[in-house]
C-alpha cells in the first residue's frame, strides 16, 4: 500500500510531514481528562489482572546477573506465589546475553522472552553489528525483539534510512515479533512522535514503543495518546493492527489504569489485550500485586511482601 511512498526520501518526507499536526494543548488536555476517570471496584479488579498480564517485566542494567534474571523469570511465571489465581506477566525483557537464561527458566509457561537489540539504548552502531545483535538474540530463543531507532537519522530528516533499518531488523527477527523504540524524550515534538509512529508501522513493526527507560521524559500519557491514535488510524487505512508499549516511569496501579482507560477510549477495546498493549516496567508489578492483595484480602501486604526486581 505504501510502496510508492517509500521509494525515496523526498516522497517519504512529503507523506510524514503531510500528516495532520498535533494540537499540543488539545492533546495534553485530552490526556489529562482521561487520567481523571474513575472505575468501579469490579472493573478495577479486572483492570489490575489485565495490567499484570500486560507487563514486560524488565531488567536492563549493566550489573544484571544470571541469578537475577532467573529470579525475575520465576516471578514473571508466578508473580504472587501465595495466590495461584494471580496471572503471569506477558514477557521478561532482558539483554541478549541473558535470553537463554530467561528462556530456560520460563520453559513452557507461555511467558515470552523479549530482548533489547540494535545497540540498545543509544542505537549507535554499524548496521551489521545491529543485525548481528538481533540474530544472536533470536538464536538464543528470544520471542520478541525491542529495537531502538537511529534518532540522529530521524531528527536529521533521513527517514528512508530509519525505514530501511527497521525493515532489515524485522527480517533478521525471523518469526520473532519486533517492537520499535522511538525514545520519545529525544524526539522533541509531538509531531515527530506521530511521524515516527507511522514510519515504524509502514516498515512492518509489530509494536511501537515509547522509550528505553534510560532517557527522561520516558512514557507519558500525551505521547501514548498520539501513538494510540496512530495505530487506530493505521488499522482504519490498512486493516492491520499494531501494538503499543509505553515504557519507563509507569510505577503505580493508578498510573496503569489511566493508560488502560486511554487505550479503551482512543484505540478501542481490541487493544485491551497483551497481544496489543504492554507496559515496559520493573517496579509497576509490585504495586499491582499490593493493590490486588488489598482487593482480595482487605488488607495491604506491604512492599516487603513481594520480591524486589
Explain what you see.
The protein has 309 residues and is α/β, with parallel strands linked by helices. It has one domain (5-297): Alpha-Beta Barrel (TIM Barrel), CATH 3.20.20.70. Helix content is 47%, strand content 11%. The protein is built from twelve helices and eight strands. The chain has helices at 9-17, 24-34, 41-53, 66-77, 99-106, 127-139, 151-155, 159-173, 190-202, 221-238, 253-267, 284-297; strands at 55-58, 91-94, 112-117, 144-148, 177-181, 207-209, 243-245, 279-281. The chain has an eight-stranded parallel sheet. Helix 5 links the parallel strand 2 and strand 3 (112-117). Helix 2 packs across helix 10 and helix 4 (66-77) runs parallel beside helix 5. The longest helix is centred in the last third of the chain and has 18 residues, at 221-238. The model has no long low-confidence stretch (mean pLDDT 95).
Query: Average pLDDT, to the nearest integer?
Result: 95
CATH class: Alpha Beta
SS field, number of helical segments: 12
The strand order across the widest sheet is 7-6-5-4-3-2-1-8
First-to-last CA distance:
43 Å
Rg, nearest Å: 19 Å
Q: Sum up the overall morphology in one term.
A: globular
Number of domains: 1
